[in-house]
Amino acid sequence: MHILRLTVSIFVYLVPFCVCGQINNQLKAELDSIYHVDQLYRDILDNPPKKDSLAKVHNLSGQEVDQRIFDKMTEIDHSNIKRVKKIIEQYGYPGTKLVGSPTNEAAWYVIQHSEDISEYFPLIEKAGKSKELPFDLVAMMQDRLLMGQGKEQLYGTQVRCENSECYVWPIANPTQVNQRRKQAGFKTTVEQNAKRLGVAYKIRTLPKK
Questions:
Q1: Which of 23, 37, 54, 102 gives a 20 to 30 Å CA spacing to 45?
Q2: Is omega for the bond preceding 102 within 30 degrees of 0, making it cis?
Q3: What is the pLDDT of residues 14-42, one digit of tens each?
Q4: What's the CA gap between 90 and 184, in Å, rounded?
Q5: DSSP of 22-49
Q6: DSSP state string for 139-205
C-alpha cells in the first residue's frame, strides 16, 4: 500500500453554544480541523517509532518514508493556506474573540508553515498586540521572517540545519535575548529552548557576504 494513500480524518468538533454571541462556532470547528491536519504529518515526522512502522509496512527506506510524508505535508500546507487566506479576507485574523482559545492559534500555524509570512506578519503582530493571539507566537514568526531574510533573529526561536549540523540562527544583541524572551511571554531561556530542540546553544554571527 502506498503511503500517500493514508487517509486524513477530518474531525467534526461539537462546540458548545456560546451565549455571548461572539464565538463563531462553525468557523471554530473548521479551524480546529485545519489545525489537526496541519499537525498530523509533522507529528509522524517527529515520531521515529511511527516512521519505522510505516517503513516496514510499506517496504520503504527511512529516507523514502521521510520524503513521502514531507510531500504529503507540503500538499496539505498548500491547501490550508488557500483556505486561511479566504478566512482572513472575510473576517480578518481569526483571534480569541472570534473563535476562542486555543483555536485562535490555528491560522498562525498555517501561515508559519507557508511562504507568505512577510505578507501576513503585520496582521499577526496586530493580533498579538491586541491580545487576539499569544505574543510569543508573534515573536516566533518574526524570528522566522528575519531568518528567511538573512537577518539576525530577536528571540532565538529558530534553528537552521546545514551540512548535518543544526544550530541556533544568529541573534541580535544576544546578551539581551533572554530579557526579550521574557517580555514576549516565553517561559524558557534561549539556552533551555535550544536544549529542547536538541541543539547546543552557542553565540554566532551572520556569515560574511
A1: 102
A2: yes
A3: 333 333 458 999 999 999 999 999 999 99
A4: 29
A5: ---HHHHHHHHHHHHHHHHHHHHHT-HH
A6: HHHHHHHHHHTT--BSSS--EEEETTEEEEPPBSSGGGHHHHHHHHT-SS-HHHHHHHTT-------
CB atoms within 10 A of CB 77: 19
Residue 161: HSE in the Cβ half-sphere, 13 Å Cα cutoff: 5
Cell numbers at 107, concatenated: 491560522
Which of 137, 89, 87, 86 lies closest to 113, judged by CA? Answer: 137
Q: Is 156 left (phi over 0), alpha (psi -120 to 50) or beta?
A: left
Question: pLDDT tens across 75-123, in order?
Answer: 999 999 999 999 999 999 999 999 999 999 999 999 999 999 999 999 9
Q: Could you tell me the pTM of the whole model?
A: 0.85
* Domain ranges within the chain, ordered by starting residue: 20-133, 135-209
